[in-house]
Structure formats: C-alpha cells, structure tokens
C-alpha cells in the first residue's frame, strides 16, 4: 500500500503566498501573534496597558490567560473577538471609556476568575450580564460616575463570586435578593455611593456590616448615618402603621363591596317583581272550563246544592246506551 506524498516546504510556501495574494486573511483561530503595542510573554500574559488604544486589540494569542488593557481609551469590548479567548482567567479593563456591557460580551469566558471594570463610563448593568462567568471570584466595578442602576439578577448565576466592589458609583438603591443567595460571597464594597436610606433600601441596611464610609445621602434626617446602624430603625419606620395609600385602598375596597351589594339587592328585587307579574298574568290566562267551574262553585251555595240533591236522579241504563 502506498502512502500519499507529504507536501514539501516549497509547496507550503506557495500555498501561503497564494492566500496572501488572494487577500484572504487567516482565521482568528489560526493566529498566534502578539498585538501591536502590546507585550506577550511565555506565561501567556498579554500586557497592553497605557498604549493609548481606542479599540480592543486584535491578533491576540488564543491561549492568553491574562489580558491587561487598562489605562487606554477603549469604548467597547467586542464579543466576537473577546470570546475567542476561552482560556482567559484574568481581565483588567479599568480606566477606559466603556459605556455598555451585556451577557453576550462574556458569553464564552467560563474560566474567567478576575474582572476589573473600574474607572469607566458604565451607566447600567443589565439582567444576567455576568451570567456566563461561572468561575468569577472577584469583580471590581468602582468609580463609574454614571452607574446608577444594577439589575437585581445581574449576579444571579455567579455562584463562585467571593468579592464584589461597587464603591464610588452613583447608586442610590441596590436590590440584594440575588446577592443573598450567593453561597461564597464574603465581601461587598458599597462606600462612596448616594445611598437613599428609605424603605426601598431596608433589606440592604439590614444586610450590610457597619462600615464608616458607607453612609446615607438622604433623606435629610438620616444623612451621614451609617447604613449598618439603620436596619432596625428603618424596619420600625417602614412597618409602623398604615399609610395614606393603605387607607385609600381600604376605602376603595369598601366602596366596591357597597356597590356590589346594592347592585345585587336591586337585581334580586327586579327578579321578584317580574316573577310576581308572571304568576299574576298566568292566573289570568286560565282555561275557560276552569273559569266556568269556578263561577259555578262561587254562585251556587252549598245549602242550595244540598236542596237540589234529592231531586237529582240517576239516569236509566237505557239512556246511557242510547247516548253510546
């Protein structure tokens, strides 16, 4: 049996030259270079910090384990390029111009353990944004001045998360329902936000530890007080009695019940009147024979009927036969 001949080095060079001449770029899965203005070492670390980049670096080695792109002007993390780095465990995107991230951004980064999104221009964290990051241990998301809204289920799938830092943003309310359910979470940074210590943050104030820098920005009577000291106070304030909306609700319920009772009574009365008229009309339309019999019974007195009784004789049998 003869084996197929192996391609020579000259043949391979001709194939590569043909690809270049035809203008066909190699697939990202085949690239193994180092991006321009970046440093790549033997430890699979790609260092691109402080290189005035305005776009996410291309031609990254697919085996990259750590990627540092901090201190640039990158405005977007392209999901298609980023998700080729399936072995990535460390990603530092701090001090850039990122405005938006979504669940598709990290769709294939199941090994990522450290993520830094600090010092960007994020404004909102959507539902399950970090859901694909099943191995995420530390998430830093500090110093985003416009970040005012974090979806309650943004961290619902991050069961390995241990450290979460959302300090120095513009948060006023934080729903902690998904955070409470995380089994390994041990540290949450909340300081430097404009926390509103009202009933919407009652659970947060009951949950957090007492920290000197985590204080209320409102309402005025609680401004400057620490969140961890207000949990029980907010509970008694928020559940002390009925508010104006509660009284309006009960008033509306009472009105509905009264109206329903009135309508029901009116309906029953109408039905009874109609039934009475129907019975009366039915009695007036009785059979004529019944009317004659009734008149006979009314006009012939029982005494007169007894007087006529002896004069009434039974008919003879012959008269019955004639009639037959």
Topology of helices and strands:
Blueprint: H1 9-22, E1 39-40, E2 45-47, E3 66-68, H2 79-82, E4 90-92, E5 114-116, E6 124-125, E7 138-140, E8 149-150, E9 163-165, H3 177-180, E10 187-189, E11 195-196, H4 202-207, E12 216-218, H5 231-238, H6 244-284, H7 288-299, H8 302-308, H9 317-323
Parallel strand pairs: 2-3, 3-4, 4-5, 5-7, 6-8, 7-9, 9-10, 11-12
Antiparallel strand pairs: 1-2
Organism: Oncorhynchus kisutch
GO molecular function, one term: voltage-gated potassium channel activity
Main location: membrane
Q: How would you sum up this structure, described in words?
A:
The chain has helices at residues 9-22, 79-82, 177-180, 202-207, 231-238, 244-284, 288-299, 302-308, 317-323; strands at 39-40, 45-47, 66-68, 90-92, 114-116, 124-125, 138-140, 149-150, 163-165, 187-189, 195-196, 216-218. The longest helix has 41 residues, at 244-284. The chain has an 8-stranded mixed beta sheet with strand order 1-2-3-4-5-7-9-10, with no helix packed on it. A two-stranded parallel sheet has the order 6-8. A two-stranded parallel ribbon has the order 11-12. The N and C termini lie far apart (126 Å). It is 32% helix and 10% strand. It is of the alpha/beta class and 324 residues long.
């Amino acid at each position: 049996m003869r084996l197929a001949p192996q391609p020579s080095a000259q043949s391979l060079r001709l194939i590569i030259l043909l690809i270049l001449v035809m203008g066909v770029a190699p697939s990202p899965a085949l690239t193994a270079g180092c991006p321009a203005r970046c440093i790549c070492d033997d430890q699979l670390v790609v260092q691109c910090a402080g290189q005035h980049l305005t776009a996410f670096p291309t031609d990254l080695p697919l085996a990259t384990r750590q990627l540092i792109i901090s201190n640039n002007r990158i405005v977007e993390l392209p999901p298609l390029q980023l998700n080729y780095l399936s072995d990535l465990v460390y990603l530092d995107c701090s001090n850039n111009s990122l405005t938006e991230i979504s669940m598709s951004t990290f769709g294939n980064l199941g090994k990522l353990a450290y993520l830094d999104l600090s010092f960007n221009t994020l404004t909102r964290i959507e539902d399950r944004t970090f859901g694909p990051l099943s191995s995420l241990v530390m998430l830093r998301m500090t110093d985003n001045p416009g970040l005012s809204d974090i979806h309650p289920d943004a961290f619902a799938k991050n069961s390995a998360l241990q450290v979460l830092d959302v300090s120095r943003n513009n948060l006023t309310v934080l729903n902690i329902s998904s955070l409470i359910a995380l089994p390994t979470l041990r540290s949450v940074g909340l300081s430097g936000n404009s926390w509103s210590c009202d009933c919407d943050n009652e659970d947060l104030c009951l949950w957090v530890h007492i920290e000197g820098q985590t204080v209320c920005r409102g309402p005025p009577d609680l401004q400057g007080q620490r969140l961890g000291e207000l949990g029980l106070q907010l509970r008694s304030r928020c559940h002390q009695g009925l508010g104006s909306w509660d009284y309006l609700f009960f008033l509306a319920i009472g009105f509905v019940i009264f109206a329903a009772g009135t309508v029901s009574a009116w309906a029953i009365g109408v039905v009874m009147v109609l039934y009475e008229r129907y019975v009366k009309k039915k009695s007036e339309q009785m059979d004529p024979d019944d009317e004659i019999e009734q008149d006979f019974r009314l006009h012939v007195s029982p005494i007169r009927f007894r007087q006529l009784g002896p004069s009434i004789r039974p008919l003879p049998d012959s008269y019955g036969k004639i009639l037959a």
